[in-house]
Design brief:
Length: 58
């Protein structure tokens, strides 16, 4: 993988992980927004999967 593409992919991974980390504290509050949190985590994991596939193809 080209270095700039790798750096871009790693930046995206870091942003996805940051979104997950920001969502975790919300789990301790009984807000009834579990579905929204799970959707956000699914989105982040899907983004990570996509980045991994792109890295494997390069």
């Amino acid at each position: 993988m080209e270095e700039s593409r790798l750096n871009t992919a790693l930046d995206r991974v870091e942003r996805a992980l940051a979104r997950i980390e920001q969502s975790v504290p919300k789990l301790s509050r009984p807000t009834g927004k579990d579905d929204a949190l799970r959707a956000r985590v699914r989105e982040a994991v899907a983004e990570l999967d996509q980045i991994i596939r792109l890295a494997e193809d390069a």
